Amino acid sequence: MVIACRGGDLTAVEERPLPPPGRGELLLKVRVVGLCGTDLFKLDNGTAAPGTVLGHELVGEVAARGGGVDGFRDGDRVAVPHHVACGSCALCRRGAATMCEAFKENLLAPGGFADHVVVKARATARGARRLPESLSDDVAVFMEPAACVLRGVLRGGLAPDGVAVVQGGGGMGLLHLLVLGAVSPDIATVVVDPLPERRRLARELGAAAAAAPGDDARAAVGEMSGGLGADAVFDTVGGAALLDSALALTRYGGSVVLFAHAPADEHAGFELNTLFKHERRVLGSYSGGLDEQSRIFSLMVDGVLDPSPLVSHRLPLVDFAAGVAIARRRESLKILFTP
């Protein structure tokens, strides 16, 4: 069974034959798969071709192994990413693995919103990780999205005792809060969101402050930073207006890290001298590579990072459309589907 795109934002349950794993491949029985903001973006914008099976945040159980696969046994629980760079091209050698041409290939067939997936050889050999008994599915399913967050955090240029701002208190915004706390526990993080219940949850999860956008956010950041402004602002919402507000919250020499899609064809319109004269930086951070996944996996195994409190809904995969509707109403943080 798979959840297949039918064009636009339409999906349908389909029965497809179960493919055997080829040489170097794994066949996984999916245990749990998360709904990602990118999945929702592709559905809302109709960019997934008919027949596509989305879904890439998953934990599975080894059901069969192709020839030459020695590192796994039937029944092993496995977390695996869908993108793995080649590791040898000019972009990979320059630290831009997520821009590698090979990285664009989806190495999960047909996709995570299915009861079984084949893990292609490159992902099996380099990206799949066997889970210890101590690591629950609800934690391990965050390996890929948390690695994406970590890449942006590391690129943000934060001091170990600095001030960070996360714009957006949804699932990815709060995952930023948790990853920041795991890698730099002395960082003071301010979460900015218009919804009181999300601000309350942010404080419960360790935010130094949580504020509504606008004057409240500026006051909270000013108090935390001694009036300097934030070292880095992580925008998990997207769009030109949010870029403007992020720049207004940064200190001189600070960074804005864009971690969200903007509407199609939207252009930034900030005054360039706010960047030039004050040596600010604006940078994008897209996805996460094997290095970030490895570090996130270690943090999870060591018990330093536990994103499972972000799981707000668990639904059977046949109720996929209902889960998408919940996410569109902004009533969820992380929705997990269980085939």
Structural description of this entry:
This protein has 339 residues and is α/β, with parallel strands linked by helices. The chain has 2 domains: 2-142 and 307-338, Alpha-Beta Complex (Quinone Oxidoreductase, Chain A, domain 1), CATH 3.90.180; 150-284, NAD(P)-binding Rossmann-like Domain (Rossmann fold). The protein is 31% helix and 25% strand. The protein is built from 12 helices and 16 strands. The strands form 3 sheets. Strands 3, 4, 5, 6, 7, 8, 15 and 16 form an 8-stranded mixed beta sheet that branches. The chain has a 6-stranded parallel beta sheet with strand order 11-10-9-12-13-14, with helices on both faces. It has a two-stranded antiparallel ribbon with strand order 1-2. It is globular and about 60 Å long. The model has no long low-confidence stretch (mean pLDDT 95).
